[in-house]
Each structure stands twice: as C-alpha cells, then as structure tokens.
Amino acid sequence: MKKIESFSEYQSEYQKSIENPELFWEEKANTFNWVSKWNKVLNWEFQSPKVEWFVGGKLNITENCLDRHLKSKSNKIAIIWEPNNPKDEIIKITYKELHQKVSTFSNVLKSHGVRKGDRICLYMPMVPELAIATLACARIGAVHSVVFAGFSAKALAERINDAECNVLLTSDGQYRGKKQLCLKNIADEALLSCDSIKSCIVLKRTGEKISMRLDRDFWWHEEIQKVNSFCPVEVMDSEDPLFILYTSGSTGKPKGVQHHCGGYMVYAEYSFRNVFQYEENDIYWCTADIGWITGHSYIVYGPLLAGATTIMFEGVPTYPNAGRFWDICDKHQVNIFYTAPTAIRALQAYGTEILKPYSLGSLKTLGSVGEPINEEAWQWYFKNIGKEKCAIVDTWWQTETGGILISPLSHITKTKPTYATLPLPGIQPCIVDADGCEIIGNDVQGNLCIKFPWPSMIRTIYRDHQRCKDVYFSTYKGKYFTGDGCRRDTDGLYRITGRVDDVINVSGHRIGTAEVENGINEHHLVIESAVVGFTHPIKGQGIYAYIILEKNSISEDLLIKEILETVNIEIGPIAKPDKIQFVSGLPKTRSGKIMRRILRKIADGNFSDLGDTSTLLDPTVVNSIIYNIK
Ligand code: WTA
C-alpha cells in the first residue's frame, strides 16, 4: 500500500475520499490478498445501524499479516520482545518464525475443538505468545476476546460469560516491574463461575507454583509439541467477526465491541502507514498493552499488515528506573514511538537529568494516544524526547473506531500542541450542538460525531445490537456519536476536549462511573455512592467517590481500605478511587437524579461556580459536602 507523501496529496486524497468513498476504499482494499473480491464496496445506514464493507469479499487477515510477506520478508524481524527485566534475554521473531508459531498454535486450538466463530478469551502478560495466540485465533476464524491482565477474577468471569468463550488462554504468572502476579490463580477463581470454558491453556512464564486441573488445564509448551506447524487459513467473509473487545460506557456493564475482518484489516494498515509515515525498515514501538484497542490495532495488526518490525514490551516505564523507555529506544534504534500522555507526564516528573545518558537520535515520529495531551506534556515530549526534530502525532480514536480517525500525518500535517488536527481521508467528523444540529464553520465547540461510515467502525455490541444503536446512533439521528467534546479552531483543526458522558479517562483507561459505583456498593455498609472524575496531574483524570454509609462504628481509615479492596475485587486496581469522601446526602433533583455536574465541580475544587442548584431536592446538601471536605 502506498502512503501519502505530502500535504497537498493529503488534501486531494481527502477530497477523493469524500466525493467517492467507495472508489477510494476499493483502491486501498485492492492492495491486500483476497481469496475472492467483494461484489459491493459498502452497504450502510445509521438507523439500525447496519454497516458492511467489501460485501461478499473473502479473506483471512493473517494471510495478509504473515503469508504474503514470506516471499520478500521471511527473514525480517516481525516482533522484538523486550522483557520486564532488561537483564533477561530479548526475543526476536522473524516473519517466517512467526508464521510457523501462529500456525502451530492454530493447530493447538483446533485440537481443543475450536471452530470458526467460537470465542476465545486471552488473559495474558505482554509476551510474544499473546500476539501469536491472537493471530492463531484469527487464522482459524475464532473470535478473540483479549482481557487486560490487570482485571480482577470477577471482571474476567463477567467477560468470559458474556462472550460464552470456550477456551481460556493464560499464564502461570506475570512480571510487572518489581511485582510478580499469579494470573492462573485469578483465572482459577474466575473459572469457578464460567461453565462455558472447556480448556484452559497455560503458558509458563514465571515458573511459580500453580494448580492444574487435569480435565481442563493444559501446559502451552506441551500442547505445541503435539501438533504440526502447517495450518491453512480459514476463509472468512469480510463481515465475519474478527474480535470482541470489552470497553466501558456511561451505564451498565462493559460492552463487547465487535470488529469484522475485511474493513478492520484495510483501515488498520492504511492508518498505520499514513499516520506514522512508516517506511520499510523503520523500527516501531507502541508501549500499549494488547489488552486494549491500541495494542490490537497498532502493536499487532497494523504493523504486521505493513510488514513492519513491532516491539512488544513486557514491563513498566519506571522499572528498573525511569529511563527504561529511552533505554529501549536507543537499544533497538526505535524510529517511531507511540505512547500515552499519562506516561509522558509520569516520566516528565523525574526531570531531564535522567535523559542525559540517552541519544534518542533514531526517533522520527512520536505518537500520543488515549486521552487529551496537555500543552506542558506536549512541549516536554517535543523538546526533550523529540529534540524538536520529531513530529508529534496526537492520535484521536476509540475502541469503537478500530483505528485512528483524527491525527496529524507525521511530518506532513502541521502540528499544533493539544490538537489532533485533521481527519484521515475517509473520515467525516462533524460537531453538533445539544439539539443535534451540526455546527458549521470554524471557531466552534460542541459534541463530536462522525457522519459517514469508515471501514474499521464498530459493527455491533456482542449479542446486544440494540445497545449499539442506543449508545452510538440514537443520541444524534443519522450520526455516530463519539461521547467526546471537541472544538474546531479558526483553521479548522480539531481539538478533543474529553468525554461529555459519564466515562472517566484514568491514565488513558476508560472507566465507567456506574461500574465503579456498582463496585463500591458491594460493600455491606455502603447505602449509595456517586463517582466522578477530577483533574489529576499525572493520570489526566482521577476517580472521586462520594459515599453514603450506614451507621457504623468502624474507623474511616479502615472503611476506606475495605472499600478500595471491594473495588479491587469487583473490577481491578485501575478502578480504585483516588479520593473517597463520606457524605450524608447527594445532590439530587426532584426526580431523584444525581447532579454529577455539581459533584464534578466540587471534586475539582471549583466551589464558586456551581451553576444553577435551584432544581435540587435539598440544596443544603451541597454546602454540607463542601464543608466536610478534608
Ligand atoms: C479518549 C483509545 C483526546 C477519548 C484509543 C476517547 C483521546 C477515548 C485521544 C477512547 C486523543 C483517545 N485526544 N482524547 N488523542 N485518544 N482519547 O476506547 O475520550 O480506550 O473517546 O480508545 O479516549 O478510549 P479507548
């Protein structure tokens, strides 16, 4: 696939993509290997909604990630694996080896009865086997559901049960900096309530003692010995599901966002090549975890489709010290580096002295993703890491969008700190007001929608199409609603201002306030709770919980500890509130709705401008909350 080379080419490509989207995307799709081509490029309507790309086309994404590179790139490194401990051995896997490892594991899955359309849950550390298993699922047409290995047993069980997975892939343990966590114990606890899982295949990573159930649990290293390494691809329809990935929303349980084979493939490579301006032999590193969408699209699929060398990092940015990222960049001569603002801010706090030993001379492009990047972090990244020579690409997108939608193209689009700048070709964003009317022109602000389909957009929520319609397509008729606020400046550049719904973005992780509240409410002394986000210097947003308790004689400190542990058990450490305030009442309207707007302002220490409180059932509640802040 050819990439855009200049800003004028971007403009003309964009124009082409708007005037004739079908022709535009057909051209891109033609660069892949298809078993047979589509009979129609696009079917769509945003009411039901129904979106189909490359209708009737047949393919397998792993043929395009692996087999098609074997002719010219079989000895090229596909994956460089950097272990948690820098003293341990680095692993490099060529395209040929990756092809063989994926095929072998595909046969392991088959030997466990996995068939096209089955759902497989992956609950694993950032080791090469995670990428291998993800691709193995895709190769045989099984739908992967990767669950971030920081989620609790309960959260894991909820996701396994929702998707009715029949195989779980996990490891004995995982290393994260100085910590060692036993994943298999967590998996065992989850599996107590998961009847659908017939096999659990366990990778040996830490070597710690774990229990294996003879009728259900199998060692990875033993299973791969039992099969051969030849596995033809399963022929998939362009609109067959490729994966499910759970993400949080404003209400209810996490949603299984579903992506399909053809469109996702085309957009993953297209966006990867263009945003990062990937050139053959670039070393590319995205620091995300494969448990999130960024890891799916821009560690595994995008780079491998492009035949790139992608780095997988098992550890954390501060282990063994806060220079680890930069050490890895120098060691592997990284050209394209992609991380989250929260990591930048955390490392910024260590000062610039720590950067002295590193050259960082190989870097060309620096990416940012997951949350709005503040001006200070942008400038620090630009000056100290990019030495004012690298382009910063602030990439806006979502689990539901499958790929980057608004972003500069590296060294092509003029950047502006804190701005994601311009839509990629094929993407038609619009800003709407509270009534859903599109706001035309520049220097405007409102809610961000997309008014035309793109190939990697969400197709449905697993077994809950109604919810897909309600959440994304009902707020503004005929448009996909992102849940984000946005401004368009006088030059037409987009700046994403953050969520406008009840989703909090903590260190780039999406957390639903309702989920945290449900977790807190599991504590037997909690009567009611309300959770909001507040501005946090490192995490972007922190979690603030207002809690009403039953009368009790337990100390506040102990209660806070217990409530945090409850959330830890219900969801996982990422959802633990940063601040807890016990209150006697919550600001509610006469109809019983909590006015979160007021709670958000209080959490941010913004007491003077609380807006209209006259509709509150009991306005004195507000003063009492403010008065009792510790
Ligand atoms: C936020 C992550 C501002 C946004 C890829 C979005 C951003 C949510 C940016 C999706 C950015 C992501 N600037 N905000 N560059 N990138 N977001 O599903 O609120 O984990 O709706 O996907 O993160 O989070 P998700």
How would you explain this protein's 3D organization?
This protein is an alpha/beta fold and 630 residues long. The chain has three domains: 1-60 and 248-501, Rossmann fold; 95-234, Rossmann fold; 505-627, 2-Layer Sandwich (GMP Synthetase, Chain A, domain 3), CATH 3.30.300.30. Helices cover 30% and strands 24% of the residues. The strands form eight sheets. It has an eight-stranded mixed sheet with strand order 12-11-8-6-7-14-15-23, with helices on both faces. The protein has a seven-stranded mixed sheet with strand order 5-4-17-16-18-19-20, sandwiched between helices. α1 packs across α2 (21-29). 5'-O-[(S)-ethoxy(hydroxy)phosphoryl]adenosine (WTA) binds at residues 247, 292-294, 369-372, 394-399, 420, 482-484, 496, 498-499, 505, 510.
CATH class of the largest domain: Alpha Beta
C-alpha termini separation: 58 Å
Helix content: 25-40%
Gross CATH architecture of the largest domain: 3-Layer(aba) Sandwich
Strand order of the largest sheet: 12-11-8-6-7-14-15-23
If you consult CATH, what is the topology of the largest domain? Rossmann fold
Under CATH, the homologous superfamily of the largest domain reads ANL, N-terminal domain
Low-pLDDT residue intervals, each spanning 5 or more residues: none
Largest sheet: 8 strands, mixed
Q: How many domain modules?
A: 3
Mean pLDDT: 97
Strand content of the residues, in percent?
15-25%
Radius of gyration: 24 Å
Tally the beta strands: 30
Give the overall shape.
Answer: globular
Q: Helical stretch count?
A: 19
Cofactors and ligands? 5'-O-[(S)-ethoxy(hydroxy)phosphoryl]adenosine
Task: Kindly name the structural category.
Answer: alpha/beta
